[in-house]
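Sample log: S3-locus F-box type-2 protein.
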Amino acid sequence: MKKFHEDMMIYILLRFPVKSLLRFKCISKVYYTLILSNTFVKLHLNRIRTTKDEFVLFIRTFREEPDQLKSIASFFSCDDNNDLNTLSPDLDVSDLTSTCDTIFNQLIGPSHGLIALTDSFIIIVLNPATRKYIVLPPSPFGCPKGYHRSVEGIGFGFDSIVNDYKVVRLSDVYWDPPTDYPGPREPKVDIYDLGIDSWRELDVEFPPIYYLPCSEMYYKEAVHWFIVTETVVIFCFDISTETFRTMKMPGSCTFFDGPRYGLAILNGHLTLICYPDPMSSIDPTEDLIEIWMMKEYGASESWIKIYTIKPVPIPIESPLAIWKDHLLLLQTKRGFLISYDLNSNDVKEFNLNCNFESLRVVVYTESLTAISRISEHGTKVQQF
């Protein structure tokens, strides 16, 4: 390799997966310095990719005892038969679960290969390829005695202006009287900057978040949720400008008391999944799933319906993600994972189950992105 020009050596190394590159660091100081350099990391991040480079991270929770939960993170690739292949042993992330309720556990991202895992109170940022992670310090912003703070949404992403990663936490603070009426709502926004290892408050208000399991989507340096105005709309927070905005949904997918909604990425576009309310008593033969794609991001008039899926034979709780641009991953009412092939209409059930409504999925591609530690006294980066 010493006979090759450095540019040629970089070109060759860019074709290797992260696992191999991490091993190549041990060859020499030259390789070590090159592979960990910001230039190489960015080149590797922006190299040409295909859906074969996509992997999935699952988080699922089991109730071992009435008051004891166990959460597991699982990493998979997919073969040509659309079967799951284990990338690495399951990771016990039980410390992530700080409450007895797992419905609000979320996976957010990826952002340059980094993913945030959260149960709203404990937040972990990890790189599944390098197996590095950091547990964020708790937000110092609580609420006065006699009040209750309810975390309504979490976001994570990259700020290209300051070249930094951020976590945003949306909360509502209520007066907590000994009655059923919680009192007036006061919205709060907290921002955590990974580059300076610090929380700060943002002086901005937001409407109540309409929680749905397949939301909190990161796309185009913005985090997306749902809110209800006169209809259901997509609510966005731009990581760089730290401002909120809204986007309209397709006209037939705006009803609060009708179908449920989820967000995904398909062929590089923001995608809306309209699916039947799992609590509805509608005849299963009418339970269609519609998939809409926003051809031009931010232009509500560019929504087009690309799929209408006939009822699948297994009752569905919620969609989870779209993988490899043709596999719609869904969670069944029994807590199992199934896939629906958008090309062949084949349905496959996997032996991957969990506690009711606790299955979460994020699709990612591997990267060398480092989780920086700004000082020896800062939050510690750990290895799993």
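Observation: The domain at 49-383 is CATH 2.120.10.30 (Neuraminidase).
Observation: The chain is about 10% helix and 45% strand.
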